[in-house]
Amino acid sequence: MSDIRAYEQTGDAGFGDYVQLLKPRVMSLVVFTALVGLYVAPVSLHPLEAFAAILFIALGAGASGALNMWWDADIDVVMRRTSNRPIPSGRVQPGEALGLGLALSGISVVMLALATNVLAAALLAFTIFFYAVIYSMWLKRSTPQNIVIGGAAGAFPPMIGWVAATGSITIEAVLMFLLIFMWTPPHFWALALFMNSDYEKAGVPMLTVTHGRRVTRNHILVYTVALVPFALATAFTSIGGPVYLAVAVALNAVFLWGAWGIWRRDEEAAQADRYAVEKKFFRFSLLYLFGHFLALLAEMALVPFGLGGW
User: What residues contact residue 5 under an 8 Å CB cut-off, 6+ apart?
Assistant: First the structure.
């Protein structure tokens, strides 16, 4: 870490501040995609086992968030978007975040192994390591491809859920992983287009900082086009069907149109409307991912009635 220091303690840390260290918004996405991966798996867990699996995956995600906030506190303090986080604001000390992250890491991995299987626990351990060490400590500050490679950390939860139920990795788990992995770059690059000044101040080499917004717009379009085949391919596996296919076609058509609109934009127009198009694309990208996994849930829920699947 480039600058670990004791932040001025305000003395008003509460339970909510420690919850915030776990990045609850990110955790909610992790829980949802892991739950879908577990639910659509061909092997059903006992409800108590399923609950335990999701709980410990969530704790693992929270551990990653706490470790990330501990490491990134020096850049969070200079970024408008993150300056009020618990550590840079002084409500929580870095050592507390580190201790919480390490404790939750150990608990989540060991308990997931006991509740489900060793492979699922190993994947969770690797995910925590990848996000905290490979992405946060190395990639984020060293390469404009940080979010491309680092996106793998956020793509593992549905695979972990699947493996928790089945004990194995199959094409369905891989495609769910690839859906999130390929979605992550255009999602975050859209954010970077209108938050570029934050990354510049913090010295984070996002693509917008190192190569400019024009190159970033090109990359958003290319990655969105590359994402579509993986999103649609899932429809033709054991967890897909006509419901998922219809939803995926609609969502990908809108997402492609949005990426095309971003690609066509020039900076003069973008600055004139304060990056309204880019912000709209960023918000829709969240709906895009949620919609695909919700469609998988719907497809599986319809199977008992003879309506889901092919």
Answer: 74, 94
For the stretch 266-269, contacts whose Cβ atoms lie closer than 8 Å and that sit 24 or more positions apart, written own/partner, are 267/213, 267/214
Token pair of 184 as six digits: 């992550």
Q: Which residues of the chain have pLDDT under 50?
A: 1-5
- Sequence-separated (6 or more) residues with CB below 8 Å from residue 161: 33, 34, 35, 36, 37, 38, 39, 41, 53, 54, 57
* Nearest Cα to Cα of residue 174 among 138, 123, 219: 123
Under 8 Å CB-to-CB from 35, ≥6 apart: which residues?
54, 161
Query: pLDDT of 255-299, one tens digit each?
Result: 999 999 999 999 999 999 999 999 999 999 999 999 999 999 999
Q: What span, in angstroms and rounded, lies between the C-alpha atoms of 178 and 161?
A: 15
Q: What is the pLDDT of residue 162?
A: 98
According to CATH, what is the number of the domain 1-169?
A: 1.10.357.140
- Sorted by where each begins, the domain ranges of the chain are 1-169, 170-310
Q: Which secondary structure element, helix H or strand E, spans residue 281, and what is its range?
A: helix 276-302
- CA-to-CA distance for 159 and 170, rounded, in angstroms? 9
Contacts of 16 (CB under 8 A, 6+ apart): none
The reported pLDDT for the residue numbered 106 is 98
CB-based contacts of 145: which residues, under 8 Å, 6+ apart? 139, 207
C-alpha to C-alpha distance for 104 and 107, rounded to whole angstroms: 5
Longest dimension (CA), the chain: 61
Q: What token pair was written down for 122?
A: 């190993």
